[in-house]
Amino acid sequence: MSYVLSNGKPLLSQKATNDGHAENSPYFDGWKAYDSDPFHPTQNPSGVIQMGLAEHQLCFNLVQKWLENNPEASICTKEGVDKFRDIAIFQDYHGLPEFDRDLCWRTGVRLLPVVCHSSNNFKVTRKALEEAYAKAVEANITVKGLLITNPSNPLGTILDRDTLREAMSFINEKNIHLVCDEIYAATVFRQPDFISIAEIIEEDQEYNRDLVHIIYSLSKDMGFPGFRVGIVYSYNDAVVECGRKMSSFGLVSSQTQNLIASMLSDDQFIEKFLLESAGRLATRHKDFTDGLRQVGIKCLNSNAGLFLWMDLKGFLRESTVEAETALWRVIINDVKLNVSPGSSFHCSEPGWFRICIANMNEETMKVALARIQKFVQRNGDKLNRKEKCWQSDLRLRLSFRRMDDVLRSPCSMSPHSPIPQSPLVRART
């Protein structure tokens, strides 16, 4: 495709033609592989199974039942209720939310990862925050804010109260903004409970509330990405006013607003939905992790989200992003599963993969799990050899370390939360 006029001058702006949309990344390559060969239990049983889409499809029967019982909430007819699911979950992957693209492509903003490690379950520490900030200052980069997800995508873990307090202390000291993405708030399926940053603000009046902004959506908790309903909750009036003005370019349709307001106002339904959703997510999580454990595959211990953070480091030929990408291509092309490599989430340790488990029915889940198990069993010898080599190398390194120790020894030398009682935003005014 040409972006240059016959006289050699650019036809489109650099912003329009740059590669910031990241469609050449593994994340989008996986979607393209799925689009060209989608799995179907009868029509294409050897096709690619979609496990790169964090979507909640486990409770649609509850929503459909509510629609049948509340026809006045929608202009849709009862005969069209089966079409509701396809409309509600529709999303073109070219426009899927992704931090690098959403924040950088049109604005020119730079994202600087806060490096976390598996040794402490990828916990966000004050040390990690300070190191990331110092690195930015050293590179003459002006830091404007800190962006966190809670519960975490892709980890499926929550940020505890101490971590949230550290984040608040950090942004207050640096006088930078905190944007807290709480889009997975109602996907917590076991203890510990979710804690909103709004609760932390209420505990300490010394925090500068003008720096804190919460974003939320019904795309994950309710499974309505096709409705494009997003929420910005800020204590900063200027930010709210700016958001109100900008929203005119992407208003939610009046039909959607009417339907969602009616549904969220039904306290009995919401309570039932949240309870049932947590139970189904817990069951799916257990079934899949148990199946992986049978063939020796571990996942990060998690209690939220629509995905697992799967550890496949043992299958890498070396600990590099290139080796991770090579393994990912095997999983896409041979195992026929669209999963997301850790590098697409800026993970500092190659070999971690995000697999989405709530966007399929139980039969498809069993097929996906069987494919992973077969792959592991087929490559088990490689995994065992790598583990033995690693253990041998570890013993050797420890042996040299003990010798070094001998040689170096002294003898030898919140009520205002947008989600007050449930993580779902109430439709009250």
UniProtKB/TrEMBL annotation:
Its EC number is 4.4.1.14. Coiled coil: none annotated. GO terms for molecular function: 1-aminocyclopropane-1-carboxylate synthase activity; pyridoxal phosphate binding. Pathway: Alkene biosynthesis; ethylene biosynthesis via S-adenosyl-L-methionine; ethylene from S-adenosyl-L-methionine: step 1/2. Its cofactor is pyridoxal 5'-phosphate. It comes from the Eukaryota. Pfam families: Aminotran_1_2. Residues 107-372 form the Aminotransferase class I/classII large domain. The keyword S-adenosyl-L-methionine applies. InterPro entries: Aminotransferase_I/II_large (IPR004839), Ethylene_sulfur-biosynth (IPR050478), NHTrfase_class1_PyrdxlP-BS (IPR004838), PyrdxlP-dep_Trfase (IPR015424), PyrdxlP-dep_Trfase_major (IPR015421), PyrdxlP-dep_Trfase_small (IPR015422). It catalyses: S-adenosyl-L-methionine = 1-aminocyclopropane-1-carboxylate + S-methyl-5'-thioadenosine + H(+). One of its GO terms (biological process) is ethylene biosynthetic process. Belongs to the class-I pyridoxal-phosphate-dependent aminotransferase family. This is 1-aminocyclopropane-1-carboxylate synthase. It comes from Eucalyptus grandis (Flooded gum).
